[in-house]
Write a structure and sequence with these properties.
Layout (H helix, E strand, L loop, with lengths): L8 H21 L2 H6 L1 E9 L6 E4 L1 H14 E12 L5 E12 L5 E13 L2 E9 L1 H8 L6
Parallel strand pairs: 1-6
Antiparallel strand pairs: 1-2, 3-4, 4-5, 5-6
């Protein structure tokens, strides 16, 4: 929960939606600092469909993880739908990602759903669901002919 519970729920939802959109825009812009600025110091990132599932705790660990992940993939993300929740501190975002794997130069495309929870106006939890197959395909080098 946000520490400012006197703020109307609708205003919190709108503010959190803007933060979510800024976060995803920063990924597409390759601006890791802007992305990390959207995260609470106690953030937990979870990727339950990764093989194996991934859980990263704390802003510093998230920044290290993102440096590696965004070094592997070049991504453009597009928000396709935002779902407001009963809890004004939770936002569900559907988005698409297109780009390429930097290591193979192969194209990448996927769809995602992220459940974002907020504290103090920043993302404190991010559970991201996606199909891991397109990433594996993009990272696999094309066999020589």
């Amino acid at each position: 929960m946000t520490t400012d519970s006197t703020e109307p729920a609708e205003a919190r939802r709108a503010r959190h939606t803007r933060v979510a959109e800024r976060l995803l825009a920063a990924v597409g812009a390759g601006d890791r600092a802007a992305q990390v600025a959207c995260y609470h110091p106690d953030v937990v990132l979870e990727f339950p469909y990764a093989a194996p599932p991934v859980r990263i705790e704390g802003r510093a660990a998230v920044e290290t993880y993102l440096a590696i992940a965004l070094g592997v993939f070049e991504l453009n993300l597009t928000v396709t739908r935002v779902h407001e929740c009963v809890d004004p501190d939770t936002v569900i975002v559907e988005f698409t990602g297109t780009g390429r794997a930097r290591t193979t130069d192969r194209p990448y495309a996927n769809t995602y759903i992220a459940v974002l929870t907020f504290r103090d106006g920043l993302v404190v939890g991010q559970r991201e669901f996606y199909n891991p197959v397109p990433a594996a395909q993009a990272l696999t080098a094309t066999p020589a002919s």
